[in-house]
Write a structure and sequence with these properties.
11 strands, five-stranded mixed β-sheet, alpha/beta
């Protein structure tokens, strides 16, 4: 059982000013209340990690800190969360760095095709990367947690056995994944996840490039009975807090938040990896999903295709005065 860190400020005669926007009915006993904004639906893994983090924080602070969670963009939209936290519209927010290309150059390195084996390792490496390099992209906020989704796979209505089968195939892709698909000869199509089922039914796209949990969570297995499990790119996420609100917290509460940083990255990665496996098993049982993995020749071709993307990253990020080679070397050195 985890040891609770005592927060001996409640009822001690020391008044604590609430750091969040206090909703009506909030107790006036010194409890600090913070609002946490998130953008995906509540059942998806970025919101599952949010609820787990909330529970751990409230338990470990002995109830001195209360977190109100807002999934599904109900407080801030996906592209507004980072700036909304800086402005104080939300005290805490979870967002995907790739949704704002060019703004998070150090984090961007993680989204390149490193072919991570799973989210647990990718999340561990991302946590170490941000801790080590302390990038300026986060200087206006306090980073509370980071994690990634699992490596993307190609789920499709057409069977894909080799890279050759990707040629000219319209696939919903986003971020770095779209660039990989383009270089492999596919025809990437940008669209929100929510539009994919209708696009598949109408034949606008023949598949989706994404991490595998959506096969069950979004019922994509009903439209995509084939998977090409190529362990492509990941998408990186960060949970950030308004810097002034963090600095105003009692020291004991800061210690709880800081102590969760690496632990939560590992927990989230392991959770979503298990969730992907469960989605694949469910898809096999319910929709007779067929999974193909790249041959050794195709794996070599994938890595060769990715190399120019690394060279481009070094050129672009180096021009900003950032040691891109050191960033990539760190990531490669942490791979299992």
């Amino acid at each position: 059982m985890k040891k609770l860190i005592p927060v001996l400020l409640i009822g001690s005669g020391i008044g604590i000013v609430g750091c969040g926007r206090q909703p009506s009915g909030t107790p006036t006993d010194g409890t600090i209340t913070l609002n946490y904004a998130n953008f995906p639906p509540s059942a998806t893994f970025p919101c599952v990690q949010m609820e787990r983090w909330k529970q751990e924080v409230e338990t470990r602070t002995g109830g001195a800190l209360k977190i109100n969670t807002f999934p599904g963009g109900t407080l801030l939209g996906a592209k507004d969360i980072f700036d909304g936290v800086i402005a104080g519209t939300a005290d805490i927010g979870n967002f995907a760095m790739s949704y704002q290309p060019g703004r998070f150059p150090v984090s961007e390195a993680m989204d390149l095709p490193h072919f991570f084996p799973d989210a647990k390792n990718a999340s561990r490496i991302l946590a170490g990367l941000i801790e080590r390099f302390k990038p300026d992209e986060f200087k206006q906020v306090k980073v509370l947690a980071v994690f990634t989704c699992p490596p993307a796979m190609v789920m499709s209505s057409k069977e894909i056995k080799t890279l050759e089968d990707l040629k000219n195939l319209p696939l919903r892709s986003s971020g770095t994944g779209a660039e990989v698909m383009k270089r492999l000869g596919a025809a990437p199509v940008a669209m929100p996840q929510s539009d994919v089922p209708d696009a598949l039914q109408k034949g606008v796209v023949k598949g989706n490039v994404s991490s595998g949990e959506v096969l069950k969570d979004m019922n994509y297995a009903a439209y995509c009975p084939f998977v090409y499990k190529a362990d492509l790119c990941v998408i990186s996420f960060a949970v950030v807090m308004n810097k002034a609100k963090y600095e105003a917290l009692p020291e004991a509460i800061k210690q709880v938040l800081d102590g969760l940083y690496h632990e939560h990255a590992e927990w989230t990665g392991a959770y979503v990896d298990q969730h992907v496996q469960a989605a694949l098993d469910w898809s096999r049982e319910q929709h007779a999903l067929v999974i193909h993995e790249p041959t050794e020749a195709d794996r070599a071709a994938l890595r060769a295709t990715a190399q120019p993307m690394f060279a481009d990253y070094v050129s672009r990020i180096g021009a900003k005065g950032i040691d891109a080679e050191a960033i990539l070397e760190y990531i490669r050195g942490q791979l299992p």
